[in-house]
Amino acid sequence: MLASRPFGAIASLALLFPSLALADQPWFDDQTFFAPPDAQVGDDLGRFMARPFDSLPDLTFRILSGNRDGLFAIDDSGKLQIAVEGGLDHTDHPFDTLVLEASSTLGKDTARAVVRTLDPDRIRYFDPDAASGGDGSRSKPWKDASKFKGPHRHLDLLLRRGRSQGFPPLDSAVDVLVTAWGQGERPVTPGTSWGNSRDIFVDNIHFLGGARSITLGTAENTTINKCELETDPTVSYAKPFFAGGGPIHVNTLMSYCEIHNAREDAMMVSGMHGFTILNTWMHDVNLASIQPTVSEGHGDGIQHTGNGKHFVIRGSLIDRGNGHGKFCIILQGTHDGLTIEGNVFIGAQDGFGGAALYLAPEGNASEYIVRGNRFIASGRRTTGIYTWNDGIVENNVFIGWGTAANGGPDKLYRHNTYVDCNYAYSGNGSTFENNLMYFAADTQKSLGGNPVVKGRNLVSRADNSFPKSADVIVGDPLFVDLARGDFRLRTGSPAIDAAVGSTTAWDHLGIQRPQGKATDVGAFEFDEGSRTAVHRNRVSSPRWSLGRVDHALRIHWSGDTPPSRMLVRSLDGSRRAHVRRLDRATWAVPASSLSGVLVFQAEFPDGSKASGVFPGM
Q: Fewer beta carbons within 10 Å, N or C terminal of the chain?
């Protein structure tokens, strides 16, 4: 259990898997914190969470701007605290937007921390050590949140930090925030379930359940933020997060969470539309040691069954190295608009098969994109990704797999980097274009089966698996640091400016292509002037900050060049929302437009566009 630093243990993991080293540059997203108006000096508002999971030992933080009246302070662990006596004025400080900087020897990054001062008329406090039941104030809190009966409407429910207590019932709740108050670690509560609810935001809570941490019934606009979910690993069918059984869940967002101690799946979900997972760590999964079969449905990182739309997972780490077989992600059923981007997947143990990503042939994952991920093998008899339907697999890095990618036709594999894999791809009918392969052994080959080879591919030694007509470069790719897993290109690499045909607009790190006369082969674009920079102004994966403000939706762009125009409409296109521009990079959508699943389309000054689905509020 890592209640105080949910991502702290990853530092030791980086030593076991040197291919994680490249990810050790500070990378932060805009985050929201909640403060009661009577907050006292030293009260914790939460930690400003980093990618890659706080693995930088020399990471330091500072507040650059926005700290009116010196209200807030941040320490070198990223913990944001109240710094002055007298509490906060909800009228004068409903929202404070701080610009924070995190830096290390590898670079620095900035992002916004929005501190929302809660309305005193909405707050109910809970403290299990209270002398009496109380009336819900800070001086007289309720003793047991689970006895605070619903259905709740338009309330902020605050659980005391450093305490174990029940969780308030949220069935049929509307517009409810559950978060922590006071000093110490996040509150610990038994597993909970809720349904028939909407506009629920759960923040900074540690769920320690028996067979379930959270069971989600029919729900709309649910956010689970900076929470820890674990179960009793001795309980059969223990799954920390469970959302199944038939109901439709619309717009669910999970961000900066840790999920662990799962006897079987970390997440078992079904029929979810607009399900987004951001910057979340899953580990110690399938502790029951169930040997996998395709038909047996337990023991994965994420198992999504039934029909779903717009499933997005970004910036997360799913470690299956601690389990036995199975998959980091398995998707069964129909999934439209699937995006898997910027994650780290550590495969199942050797000898038990399994894969990092499995798109089941009995289902249909159409128009999916697998982009900018790092797939790390735990054994030679495992597969990186196993897919059947049409999609795009680009800008990924595969390390140490028996077969990095396998499956049926109609897929495009381009600009990937394969290191020490027995096969880069094995299958028939897919297109293999502008990829880079480094072989650690003479027996390793690029291709098995009969893919369609296009563009120009690079191999580190002669490889007879390519068709004779294929355009292949043979030579040392000249990685920056192979031993540390830094697979960027050095000056003189034969991969530089060598790609032809279909290419990508951005590379594995978000650097715009091309940087030279032509695009480079493989996942990384050579960029001598930005060795440690992470470029994020990429249309393919824009940086959006979404937040509820007085029952409206706020959209903020935090890249370098904001869009010149913003359009918001319903998923089926039947209605268009009114969008009001607040400043150069911020827009607001009124509450009257927020029903159903919404998509945005941003238009940029250079004529490019970006679109995506609102992940839920």
A: N
